[in-house]
Amino acid sequence: MIRLIRDYLFHRWACKSVYSLHSPFVFDWHQEVLRADLSKEGAKVEALRKELIRDQRQMQIQDFGAGSGDKGPSAATQSLGSLVRKASRRRKSGDFLYRFCKYYQPSICLEFGTHVGISSLYQMFALEGGEFHTMEGDPGFAEIAKSNFEAFGQKAHQYVGEFDSILQNEISLVDLRPDYVFIDGNHTYEATLRYFHLLLPHMPDESILVFDDIYWSDGMKKAWSEINAHPEVSVSLDLFELGICFLRRKQAKEHFRFRL
Fold it and tell me: Which terminal residue of the chain has fewer beta carbons within 10 Å of its beta carbon, N or C?
């Protein structure tokens, strides 16, 4: 906790002011995405969140990610409401994802970590024709997310299981070629770097990678540092909660810190 507070204070100190931006690309992003108003669609997602928080059904959750340690997948039982309250995305960052997808309109989206579909819906509401593919390790969450998508008339290609297995057996990145990827699952150094290097050769120019919880642990902090230093990442944006990489391979390398 002390490390996280220290990192956050440093981040606030190092954040850029809009008046110091000399990159037209980043200035436009700052004005149109980062500092835009909350969306009407976000209110719909928040109504769903309130409904889910009241849901007392017991969920046996499977943890395939950082929380499972070295003993393989772990299981625990909690109410759906408590899980949504603790783990689902808050409106501020959810609405940011909505504005982000609304502005860039990616064609093929790939999400690591569906959970109950809160983040997914924020992103899908913004799309005007793009495909949305999402992976979830826990079948119970995936089924709830499916119901939530259907309730809002949203269509997603859903995959259930361990991410590495899905990427090996169910999704062909060679054919899919996503131009927008949101990684919100398995928050370990090794997994995050593995996904990044696996995705990179199959993402076209002008593609975008968004990483959640980049300061969640020393491992995630290290992974984010290595990713934004990679030569194919031309523009990287550190929002503390999220890290964003633009693969604009002909553009000079730039790195910025902002407050979400």
Answer: N
Classify 255 as helix, strand or coil: strand
pTM given for the model = 0.90
C-alpha to C-alpha distances, 19 to 27, 30, 173, 254, nearest whole angstrom: 9, 11, 40, 16
Q: Which of 44-53, 138-147, 245-254 shows the lowest per-residue confidence on average (mean pLDDT)?
A: 245-254
CATH of the domain at 28: 3.40.50.150
| Alpha-carbon span 35 to 43, nearest angstrom | 18
**Contact of 128 with 105, CB cutoff 8 Å:** yes
C-alpha 91/C-alpha 221 separation (Å) is 24
**Helix, strand or coil for residue 178?**
coil
Among 38-42, 52-56, 133-137, 141-145, which is the least confidently predicted range? 38-42
**Residue linked to tokens 């984010």:** 224
Instruction: Please tell me the chain's helix, strand, coil percentages from 3-state DSSP, rounded to the nearest 5.
Output: 50, 20, 35
pLDDT value at 190 more than 60: yes
Q: Name the domain count of the chain.
A: 1
Domain membership of residue 238 (yes or no) is yes
Position 102, amino acid: K
Q: What is the 3-state secondary structure (H, E, C) of 121-157?
A: HHHHHHCCCCEEEEEECCHHHHHHHHHHHHHCCCCCE
Residue 172 DSSP label: -
- Whether the Cβ atoms of residue 196 and residue 228 lie closer than 8 Å to each other: no
Q: pLDDT tens digits for 44-96? A: 999 999 999 999 999 887 766 655 444 455 567 899 999 999 888 899 999 99
Domain extent for 244: 2-54+88-257
